[in-house]
Amino acid sequence: MTAAINRTPLASDDDWWRSAVVYQVYVRSFADANGDGVGDLQGIRERLPYLRELGVDALWLTPFFTSPQIDGGYDVADYRDVDPMFGTLADFDAMITDAHALGLRIIVDLVPNHTSSAHPWFRAALAARPGSAERERYLFADGKGEQGELPPNDWESIFGGPAWTRVADGQWYLHLFDPAQPDLNWRHPEVRAEFEDVLRFWLDRGVDGFRIDVAHGMIKAEGLPDVGFNSMTTGRRQSELLGKGRLPYFDQDEVHDIYRAWRPILDSYPGGRMAVAEAWAETPQRLARYIGPDELHQAFSFDFLDATWSADSFRKVIDTALAESTIVGAPTTWVLSNHDRQRHVTRYGDGEVGLRRARAAALLMLALPGCAYLYQGEELGLPEVLDLPDELRQDPAFLRTGESRDGCRVPIPWSGELAPYGFSPEGCELSWLPAPATWRALSVAAQTGVPGSTLELYRAALRIRHEHPALAGTAGAVTWLEAGPGVLAFRRSAGDTVLTCAVNVSGAEVVIDGYGRPIVASAELTEQGGGHLLPVDAAAWFERR
Ligand code: NOJ
């Protein structure tokens, strides 16, 4: 087993987020302490030592606030309380106290674009008349057609179907996601004041940062103009433009006023409180506008999620993200998997091939400068669960589009011989989604201390990333090397110490020579001549001092 990372609890560095490794906890599926088959805050608290030992710097917790759970908690009914399913505010306080004592920072998810339809504001809006003050906090509008029977415009929900739902008195309300997630009217001063207060509520409780959900969505173009096409009219979904084109409901210039108001609030607290945007914009330049000293600290760079297993594709993603970060002088963020996308083991081919490639991709990502976001279970090499029975799927998009994100949200395996493999206490057999039998061999206990396991690979890589002068902090720009076709290689250095990361995407073994001694590898290397044979779909870090 690798040695624990040598860090003082909560080192007081306001710039910690620039090079942090953040571990995404999908709260429902991380650890269940009370035996109801659903993960909870106490479960996270009990597993903090595991995360410290793994070597991450911070946790991002997906929404655990009071919610009917129509969209896995991204439908919040009370922004200042914990859903009983996950525990209590006291559990949160105990968890964050323990996390900080272990040197782990906590980022919480803020969902400002929409509330739950069970939020008191929306209930009041439904009970009130068209044109009332209560309706002003959301986006209610009259329909088109003679009787107002047609939606106010052609906007489409990201989950499929129209983005408008009609209420009993004939008006329509906007929901860019599920009908149970009505969009707020961010031109309303009460909405702005409310979220500034919610920020302070969690900052006062000690959170180190926020992940801002749909950060590009809060402002809609004046007059709510049509897009001009949608899947009902042309068969083409508007969401295809996410990250590629302009939509009147995303990335409007006015949204930046909101972040300019938030930043002084974050800065007024000690210890480097940060915010990361889940934002989609047409160009890297427009995405970069969310980041900076007067707005947010980071915006996820999602391009890795779409990269294919090829040197060109990876190189393009990395160059684009690095260029983006130089535009604003803020660090890049890297993401290989999250709770919305198929796990990368499966994206890269599933089975043995997928796992081999996923392990190599982890070494590629962790050698890059900036901040890396890990999704729970990737350190175990978990694949997507592709064969969940339809009746167990809970993703609201499933019914509308047939696409479901449940396969990456299955509770992770900790130990033992029987499902759910230590996710719940002994004797509890039913987790909210069932883990496949193959996950017994992938549990934390099954991989701990096993040389070559994916878990030990992550531990080793994270330890080196923290301690190695060429990788630590934001030091060491990326210099690409010519290493032959299908080999992606770059180096980073600190003084005379050089670290080279080489990834073999060529489809054949390659000899790597001249980069020094290997210090970690995703597959076994063999010496050949003065160099090393790097197997197919493998990556390694080499060091020269
Ligand atoms: C992005 C979140 O990551 C996703 O899970 C959620 O469904 C939507 N935003 C809506 O809140």
Write up this protein.
The protein is of the alpha/beta class and 545 residues long. 25% of the residues lie in helices and 16% in strands. The chain is built from 15 helices and 21 strands. It has helices at 41-46, 48-54, 89-101, 120-127, 133-136, 189-204, 255-267, 284-288, 303-306, 311-328, 344-347, 351-366, 396-401, 444-447, 454-467, and strands spanning 21-25, 58-61, 65-66, 78-82, 105-110, 140-141, 164-166, 172-174, 209-212, 274-277, 298-299, 333-335, 371-375, 479-481, 487-494, 497-504, 510-512, 517-521, 526-528, 531-534, 539-544. The strands form five sheets. It has an eight-stranded parallel sheet with strand order 11-10-9-5-2-1-13-12. Strands 14-15-16-21-18 form a five-stranded antiparallel sheet. Strands 6-8-7 form a three-stranded antiparallel sheet, with no helix packed on it. Helix 12 runs parallel beside helix 15 (454-467). The longest helix has 18 residues, at 311-328. The mean pLDDT is 95. Bound molecules: 1-deoxynojirimycin.
Summarize the model shown.
With 545 residues, the protein is an alpha/beta fold. It has helices at residues 41-46, 48-54, 89-101, 120-127, 133-136, 189-204, 255-267, 284-288, 303-306, 311-328, 344-347, 351-366, 396-401, 444-447, 454-467; strands at 21-25, 58-61, 65-66, 78-82, 105-110, 140-141, 164-166, 172-174, 209-212, 274-277, 298-299, 333-335, 371-375, 479-481, 487-494, 497-504, 510-512, 517-521, 526-528, 531-534, 539-544. 25% of the residues lie in helices and 16% in strands.
